[in-house]
Amino acid sequence: MEIDHIFICTENKAPSGDLLVEFGLVEGSSNTHPGQGTANRRFYFHNLMLELLWIENLEEVQSERTKPMRLFERCELTSNNVSPFGIGFRPTKEKDEAAPFPSWDYHPIYLPDFLKIQVADNTPLSEPMYFYLSFAMRQDKVSEDKREPMEHKVPLKEVTNVKIHVNQDISLWTSAYILNQLHDLSVENDKEHFIELEFDNGTFNQSKDFRPNLPLFIKW
Questions:
Q1: Which residues, listed in sequence order, are joined to residue 209 by a DSSP beta bridge?
Q2: Closest CA to 129 of 2, 8, 1, 31
């Protein structure tokens, strides 16, 4: 298993995405999630996608189908105790169809009936949403006609380490303990919510902190 994409809940239309563009990232396509009530701006790298997510439709995001995802609570951005992150995983082997953590199945209407998103059970809102996409693949492995821009004005190619900082002082949930076994990911308690992304093993010894506008710290 490896990380497929990370979402960060933002304000409407994700104005903080402009900071990423000014930094030198080339923006990919954006989309909406019919029936789920969210929309995004997306930035692609060879092995991971960064998604800035916001609420587009209050009725849909609080619908019977979507409410268990608790996207409304995460994207309200009214409490420092709620993590604004979601961490999506994909298999490294084609036949790994089941999530390695206890999960429930979410069937959004924007996916075909035979596909599902496996969401970690009972994760506290103080931790990110953890979910598994058995059908996902690396961006640099998709067909060229569906490939998003991955070459940026700054030399960022592949994410080699992800550190999730969680604003809580209670023990991490079961899923986080399982995920902490991955060699390129760590989830740890802290005094604030933010994500550290390391690119290309930090070869250039450079960094950029997007806080307080975006809870993101990049090293390359």
A1: 217
A2: 8
